[in-house]
Design goal:
alpha+beta, 38% helix, 4 helices, 5-stranded mixed β-sheet
Length: 96
């Protein structure tokens, strides 16, 4: 899978160093994984939920949330945001 954009992972690692290993692990796994649909993705990563068009991943023992649009047919992940729970709960990421 092609992940757009890895820069958000790098920024999140700097912002939340305690979750850096978990973010790196997520990136490595998802980069090499090609799920056919959401159910297939959920089998590999049980801590993912579907919220509208977004896939929301709990990362690092539920410390942060990674929000992405997954194009299963096109084999692309579009990372919209990586947020703390407080930022996530505001819901601003849903706009646009």
């Amino acid at each position: 899978m092609h992940i757009i954009t890895q820069a958000r992972i790098i920024e999140a690692r700097e912002k939340w160093p305690h979750a850096a290993n978990a973010l790196d692990a997520w990136y490595r796994v998802m980069k090499g994984y090609q799920p056919s649909d959401f159910a297939d993705l959920k089998r590999l990563f049980p801590a993912v939920d579907k919220v509208g068009k977004f896939c929301v991943f709990d990362i690092g023992g539920n410390k942060i949330r990674l929000i992405a649009v997954v194009k299963f047919q096109g084999k692309k992940w579009y990372i919209r945001a990586i947020l703390s729970h407080k930022e996530y709960d505001k819901g601003d990421w849903k706009e646009g």
